[in-house]
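The protein record quoted in full:
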Amino acid sequence: MMRIAFDATPLVGDLISGIGWCEAYLVDALTELYPAHQYRYEYFTLRSPKEKIRRMEKFRKENIPLRSAVMSPLLYRMASNFVPVPYSAFFGDWADITHFFNYIVPPKVHGKTVVTVHDMVLHAYPETMRTRTREMLRLGLKKSMQRADCIVTDSEFSKSEIEKYYPQYADKVRVVPCGVDTKRFYPVEDADAVAAVKAAHGIEGEYFLYLGTLEPRKNLERLIQAYALLRQEHPEAPKLVLAGGKGWMYDTIFETVKMLHLEDKVVFPSYIPSEDMAALYSGATAFVFPSLYEGFGMPPLEAMACGTPVITSNAASLPEAVGNAAVLVNPYKVEAIAKAMEILMEDPALRARLKRLGLRRAKEMSWENAAKKLYSIYESLV
């Protein structure tokens, strides 16, 4: 029997990113498939401890309790870059394995350690990162990979990137692809349910959808420019919905919309609650995700699971994630993005074919399969 701890930092924030959902789904699948082991979530908290417990309620189960330590998580992470304050001083020697899902392994963790390094944006596109995040990774990532007994990443592409920038740790890297939750993401056939979600987020009529963080790496300025080209040829084209929380350097995204006079055609619904996502995906003419760089890219798979045709980049890990079930475009060519949107808008037969292929791909990429691969890594460590 193993005792396995999970760093819950990506789950206790007010907004959960893709990293947090990746952890939640993997842990849920692991604890379902392998209930004989002991598990727990660990996290630091200084302010609002009751609020963090409330946020964790949807992730904790009978066989995965919570363990918190009184400390500012940001302060601990910053300080541990310079002073090796033992993690075990807060969480003891309970765990045989502790898994950190967000790049950083702190000093002196008891037992074996696993860290998930999702991508190499730090080196490939540093200008697209928040300054604080970039500097903390710059200070801590190399030490983290040195401390880790195993480095998990989301795709073969990301594995090759880690090996390129940190060849000294190549023998530690293992691939555990992300999956998609087909209970949460599924085709919503109820037109009234789709209409209600659209109304709640200020969306009228047909629409192309992007769902993700609003930040430079997602290539949204070129997407908006491509949409402007599409409307020149097809003034009746569906609206463009750019849904998601504001990330970093997002002002130019809004400025591009104003410059191209698309204020009444581009909709920004902001953060979409989890319970609204399936209906929002399902109602779209197509999902457009022209990101420049992804360690995996979960949103295209989520759209496929909802039966929505997908346009995405032929770059980084995205072809690996979507297989043959999406239209791939060069993300640097505005005309190519516009042409793909035009084709899907005008070709219902192609949309139907992509729906079939996408649903099949989503079934292949299950969190259960991912959890089995991760479990084999844990077994090999102990």
Remarks:
- The longest strand covers residues 38-45.
- DSSP finds 16 helices and 13 strands in the chain.
- The chain has a mean pLDDT of 95.
- Residues 131-147 form the longest helix (17 residues).
